[in-house]
Amino acid sequence: MANNKKNDAITARDVDFAKWYTDVCRKAELMDYSGVKGFIIYRPYGYAMWEQIQKHMDKKFKELGHENVYMPMLIPQSLLQKEADHVEGFAPECAVVTKGGLDDLEENLVIRPTSETLFCEHYAKIVNSYRDLPKLYNQWCSVVRWEKTTRPFLRGSEFLWQEGHTIHATEEEARKETLQMLEVYRSTAQDLLAIPMVTGRKTESEKFAGAEETYTMEALMHDGKALQSGTSHYFGQGFAKAFDVKFLNKDNKQEYVYQTSWGASTRLLGAIIMVHGDDNGLVLPPRVAPIQVMIVPVMQHKEGVLDKAYELEAQLKAAGLRVKVDASDKTPGYKFADAEMRGIPVRLEIGPKDIEKGQCVIAKRLDGSKETYALDDDLGSKIHTLLDQIHDEMYAKALKFRDENIRTAHTYDEFKEILETKAGYIRMMWCEDDACEAKIKEDTGATSRCIKEDEEPFGDVCPICGKPAKKVVYFAKAY
Amino acid sequence: MANNKKNDAITARDVDFAKWYTDVCRKAELMDYSGVKGFIIYRPYGYAMWEQIQKHMDKKFKELGHENVYMPMLIPQSLLQKEADHVEGFAPECAVVTKGGLDDLEENLVIRPTSETLFCEHYAKIVNSYRDLPKLYNQWCSVVRWEKTTRPFLRGSEFLWQEGHTIHATEEEARKETLQMLEVYRSTAQDLLAIPMVTGRKTESEKFAGAEETYTMEALMHDGKALQSGTSHYFGQGFAKAFDVKFLNKDNKQEYVYQTSWGASTRLLGAIIMVHGDDNGLVLPPRVAPIQVMIVPVMQHKEGVLDKAYELEAQLKAAGLRVKVDASDKTPGYKFADAEMRGIPVRLEIGPKDIEKGQCVIAKRLDGSKETYALDDDLGSKIHTLLDQIHDEMYAKALKFRDENIRTAHTYDEFKEILETKAGYIRMMWCEDDACEAKIKEDTGATSRCIKEDEEPFGDVCPICGKPAKKVVYFAKAY
């Protein structure tokens, strides 16, 4: 059967997962490399997915009262250096502009690796009183962080993201915002991308440069590695003090603001690929798929077939579906395999016999199953229902995979054995000492992904050092 | 009357138009300056207008078959140098990255001043046959051009824009695309921004670096200066030859593609401000206004007033209007002046007496006129109708101003006299010699804005040199 035909050009996942990943990225035309290492081209099919993510998240941000702004791309080096931890974290990754026009600059400028410093400088100018608070700003942009090892969408010297930066009159409100935005990310992953996340707090050594607390959501890839997919930071008053962002509180006293920032990036595209894809290529969650239904005319040279295909396209478009007709001069078998490789959730086949019978055949990318649908006025809403079903099935499948790959280690030997044989997440009790994290990382390559404060301790000793341990921590190898 | 109160902090237009402009930009919180000259902060109220423009244009682009992509922010210097005219035009304006991470780069990288070179390099890789054509790509991003003299929105070292880059199998198709996109810009200006444009072709000396032909739309500001507000370029095969972008045509022969590019930027915000604004501040065209209706409760401490205001807000939001309640602790008079300064098209006043009578008062920002509206289910649709009326009135007013400020010069003396006393556009017959343009520019500061090939010649001699002239050209002082 054509739709089960293996796509020869894509490496099988179990043969070489890294190769499979880049094969899919390029063959499905999600991206291409540019002449500068680590700077990729987001091709239409990849960018369209990012646009769906943007649309979904931007709406949520605005519903919660956030406003979009745009800050300059360049940051004076002196400004970046105002918060000590922050500059220490980012200085080694900066791209530096030293010439503007034909002249050497008086002060070097850094292409934003993130924009905390710019937001702080601006906030210090525009905030005077508690009446001016909160400020709930967000921006969509690209940032540059010089990376040595790069992979499409996962780690690049330039990537697209949104960065929210908010300031508040109270610690309580800022902490609430931090967790609220983590939940926006988590629910976006679930509702739009059909990806179940693990959420929690980062350890001291893994948190953001300058943050008091960093919360993260982590997705589990098919190869058992974790992917940090969105973070939300509580800054306390650290940046506010460094940048002198003060306000007159209700008691008429000067106080520093309480701050958050939160970001999610085109890494999410990498998560979609590696959570859902299979050996035939992409498998796209319907709500983020640029094309949800590919109509493939069978025997398209026969009179009426192409007309019917376009008529169906118009009908389904009017029903709010993202739909396309593949009217190229390729064979149906080729078109089936191509739609499959691109991960299009639903393929609609229509040929002379179907038209005669007033029906069409609909095939699901997820499992290859086929069903006959009547060509009536309800076709659009039936496909909507089918797409929702597919979304739920994809989420359930990914959730099962994730849950099967969370394992508990009571001893370090157990930890290492799990890591070597099965990968996935490893739950371990932890003493909260950086040294134990560092040892695990050095010995095994696994890192702490997050502290699960919502999980009951299942022991009271850290298996690494033997000291008392109160926290459940998830470890994993990660991208 | 409060709504006629002059806003003291804004300089009158006739006293100092440049000062008026920056006063409005800052007081209405459209932008703020950053620590780097020429790099501005787009504040929420300014950015929200850009978002409206993006939404409107992006929809049109997609309806015409264009797809969005994202190209890298950095261009290797060697790539930028491949097309001779292009590099000559842009090299003096480039911001150059010489360090990445902690190392000096082997090759300097330029922050994109525009992305023709990147698109060409990519197209060369992905296009093989006429079946791959056309490629109709667009990207939304910011670009950097080092400018010595900068003004918010009008000329900055960084600005936001979209750049469309298309390639075609035939010259005819590419030429059609060039004009089609100019028309998209022109109609966007008319339908969304209520700005009448003058459109035409740029002279050789004013065209884009590397283009065969540049088409432009020009808006006329209140001070009689023109503002280039969007351009569309036909490249022929120039870039294709420099970057080797070839395809196998239907006759099975290798041929270079025919190319276009077109861009519109946040300059359009400058046009909105300077075309429509008055001495009290902004006057925003309703379709681009971030807030279309500001509800001002009168005697808001009285029971039921604020509730009614929020109830109306919900009703009007549900009717698809962008609406806000000003529930701050300021006086109604202050709120009226503030809404006026921010250019909000319609103010809705609601107080205890209005509620009693089941009515509200609606004031138009454009002319200060007030009318009473019944508080019934039709209020939303009535305000929609009113906003459409306001749009039409604003367009008609701007069109009248534009048309009154197009004057014809038969002699150079006449030209200079018009320029000194009245400004605006000056129509002149032109010999097509760069030298005459250059002389005008040197003598008067006015530049050719565009060749009006759709206008009948009204003479046959160039007033500058006395040689034969066939082209009607519009000159003006310009931003």
From TrEMBL, chains A, B:
Pfam families per record: HGTP_anticodon (PF03129), ProRS-C_1 (PF09180), tRNA-synt_2b (PF00587)
Main localization of the protein described in the UniProt heading: cytoplasm
Localization: Cytoplasm
Domain of life from the UniProt record: Bacteria
Gene3D superfamilies the UniProt entry points to: Anticodon-binding domain, Bira Bifunctional Protein, Domain 2, C-terminal domain of ProRS
PROSITE patterns hit by this protein: AA_TRNA_LIGASE_II (PS50862)
Domain Aminoacyl-transfer RNA synthetases class-II family profile residues, every copy: 42-285
GO terms of molecular function: ATP binding; catalytic activity, acting on a protein; proline-tRNA ligase activity; transferase activity
Job description of the protein: Catalyzes the attachment of proline to tRNA(Pro) in a two-step reaction: proline is first activated by ATP to form Pro-AMP and then transferred to the acceptor end of tRNA(Pro).
Domain notes from UniProt: Consists of three domains: the N-terminal catalytic domain, the anticodon-binding domain and the C-terminal extension.
Assembly and oligomerization: Homodimer.
HAMAP family hit by this protein: Pro_tRNA_synth_type3
Name under which the protein is recorded: Proline--tRNA ligase
